[in-house]
Structures are given as C-alpha cells and as structure tokens.
Amino acid sequence: MTKRYSIAAIPGDGIGKEVVPAGLAVLRAAAARAGGFALDVTEYPWGSDFYRATGRMMPEDGTATLRKHDAILFGAVGDPDLPDDLTLWGLRLAICQGFDQYANIRPIRLFPGIASPLVGADAAALDWVIVRENSEGEYAGHGGRAHRGLPEEVATETSIFTRTGVARIMRVAFRLAESRPRKHLIIVTKSNAQRHGMVLWDEIAAEVAKEFPAVRTERVLVDAMAARMVLKPRSIDTVVATNLHADILSDLAGALAGGLGLAPTANLNPERHAPSMFEPIHGSAFDIMGKGIANPIGTFWSGAMMLDHLGEPAAALMITDAIARVTAAGLLTADLGGKATTAEVTAAVIAAIEGRNL
Ligand code: NAI
Ligand code: MG
C-alpha cells in the first residue's frame, strides 16, 4: 500500500521561490523512484508579498493550517524593503516557535568536486552534525527598550536557559551522537564568562551524559571551537551548542564545506507533536534573486532530511547520492565557481535519481 505524506511548501521570498519548486521536483522524482510512498504537496504563498497585500507575513490561523501537514519545506524570508526582524519573526520564527521545533540539526559534509577553503580538507575531515538549541537561549526574544531616543536609552536582550529546554536539546544531541559511528559529542559552552545560563547548560549536559555511557564527550569554549573547526576538523563529529553559538559556528561550518548554497537544516519537533520544518540555511539572497542561478542543493539536501524524518531513508539517500554524482561531475552553480543554472542542476539531480546519464 502506498503511504501518503502531506507536505506544506512555503517558498517565501527571493530565491526561496526558485529553490523550493526545484526541491519539490527532486522530492517527487525520489518518491517515484523509491516507490511505496507519495507526497501530497500544498503550497502556501506566504512571505513579504503576502505582507504587502494583507499586512501579515502569514494568515492569523497560519500555524493551525500548517499543523495538519506531516512536514514543512521552507525556502527563505527577507525582503529589501521590509525590516528583517519583521519578516523573520512574522513567518519563520513564528512557525519554529509555534511548533516548538526546538532542535535544529545542521549536517556538514564535503561533497565530491566541491573545494573547501580549508587546505587539505577531504570528506573525512568534514563530516559533522551541529545540533542547535532552537527555542530559547540568546534568541528567546526576551528583553526590551526604554527611554527611546533619549541619551539614557537602554535595550536589554536577555538569554533564557531553562532546565527543560537544556535537558531536551542535550538528549537529542546525545541520541544523535550515539547513532553515529564515532559516538563523540562536543558540548560547546562559554561558562567561563557567562556565569549563570552557561553554567546551568554545563551542569545539565553532565547529568544527561550519564544516560548515554557509550558517548564520549568534551566540553569546549565557543571561541576555541571556532579555531578547532579550522585547525583540527578531523577531531569533530557531533556538536551541541546554544542558539547563538550554533548559529555562528554552523555558518563557519557551511563555509568550510563549500558555502551557504549547499547547507541544509531541519527544525525538529522531536516528539512529533507538531510538524517539523526543513529548509536551506541561506536567506533570500537579494543580489541574485530572479536570475535563475541560485544553488538548489541546500534545498535538495533539506528535502532528503525531510524524507529521513518521515521514515523514508532509502529515498533520502537517493537524493544525497544524486547530489554527490552531480557535484562530482562538476555541474556547479556560480557560487561554487561553475556556470550551471538552477534548472540545469535540478535536471541533473533528477537524472541521477532516475539512474540516467547526467
Ligand atoms: P543570504 O543567505 O540571503 O545571502 C548571502 C550571500 O550568499 C549572498 O551573496 C547570496 O547571493 C549568497 N547565497 C545565498 N544562498 C545562495 C544560493 N542558494 N545560491 C547561490 N548563492 C547564495 O544572506 P543575507 O544576504 O545576509 O540576507 C538576505 C535576506 O535573507 C535578509 O533579509 C535576511 O534576513 C534573510 N535571511 C533569511 C534566512 C531564512 O529565511 N532562514 C536566513 C538568512 C538570511
Ligand atoms: Mg544564520
């Protein structure tokens, strides 16, 4: 019997509108090739154009509408004429927070044919997963401003660390580390300088570690971690870090593995009380939007993560294997030094999935 998964697609703004349709085409090809399941896709035209028309980034009942889907494929938000905090909080963060997608998973690997800026790096040097706390920490939205415009104006941006929030992200990270061959987890911290939240973070990490005796752990300060990613990449496997720290480290990781256009991410609600959301890590890329040259691979890989999450690992592997075949063949977009268009890379990945010549 054919299983059916209900997918919400939200292209959003800029190149999101180019890479999400490409991603859907690749997902459909993988589903057809793998067999046994089908995707029922509903597209939602939410984002900055929707805001200009309605005054909202998504309808008031947007999250209620999305809740009935099994997963969400998201493009990007961001518009040259609208404030970034409005677009981000109005759509992407509203979904992440509304669905308690507290675990942000960011795999890093070096595909064949991709040059890393890191001298001597190969596929074995760059095979990491960064687990980012996605619901609290430095991006909890807690704080305020007073005395606006006056000399004594003040703004606070308070980090929030809760026992529940830290324990649950640690468990996700430990489970993931345990599932990987090296069973090694680096806990990124800054408890030397941040004496409250980060100390709680460290204490809970040590408590949760007792539940996972097979996992070897290390505690590394975030600044040292940035250096280690560049100097000793082979010593890294699974990494867990706060919202802010992982945001920065994962951009560095993405750059080391060939750039923003390749990197995927999953915003998971691990308990599956609500749909999870899968998206490339890049933004709406004002400078290249509408040109048809956006790299769609980050979206394809995000789609593969979505299939994995839905319980279709064979189809997910078809997508990542097809990406590797296409990058190995040198069919690359301009951000990777090539000349291929979004459409050409998409057609080649679909051909690889279907077992045809590129
Ligand atoms: P960006 O990721 O949109 O672009 C940064 C640079 O990388 C640009 O030069 C762009 O052309 C290039 N780039 C990004 N993705 C690419 C791809 N797939 N193929 C080829 N080149 C690619 O980040 P930026 O410029 O800081 O932000 C632009 C807008 O996107 C802003 O409004 C920002 O708030 C928003 N943004 C949204 C995100 C999201 O929706 N998850 C994440 C990051 C930024
Ligand atoms: Mg970022």
CATH third-level topology of the largest domain: Isopropylmalate Dehydrogenase
How would you sum up the global shape? globular
- What's the total helix number? 11
Distance between the termini: 32 Å
Number of strands: 12
By CATH, the architecture of the largest domain is named 3-Layer(aba) Sandwich
Q: What is the percentage of strand-forming residues?
A: 15-25%
Give an overview in words.
A ten-stranded mixed beta sheet has the order 2-1-3-12-11-4-5-10-8-9, with helices on both faces. A two-stranded antiparallel sheet has the order 6-7. 48% of the residues are buried. It is globular. The protein has eleven helices and twelve strands. A hairpin with a 7-residue loop joins strand 6 and strand 7. The chain folds into two domains: 203 residues, Isopropylmalate Dehydrogenase; 142 residues, Isopropylmalate Dehydrogenase, CATH 3.40.718. Helix 1 packs across helix 9 and helix 1 crosses helix 10. The model has no long low-confidence stretch (mean pLDDT 96). Helix content is 40%, strand content 22%. With 358 residues, it is of the alpha/beta class. Bound molecules: 1,4-dihydronicotinamide adenine dinucleotide (NAI) and magnesium ion (MG).
Brief description of this entry?
The chain is of the alpha/beta class and 358 residues long. The chain contains eleven helices and twelve strands. Helices cover 40% and strands 22% of the residues.
Features:
single chain, binds magnesium ion, Isopropylmalate Dehydrogenase, ten-stranded mixed beta sheet, two-stranded antiparallel sheet, 358 residues, binds 1,4-dihydronicotinamide adenine dinucleotide, alpha/beta, 2 domains, 12 strands, 11 helices
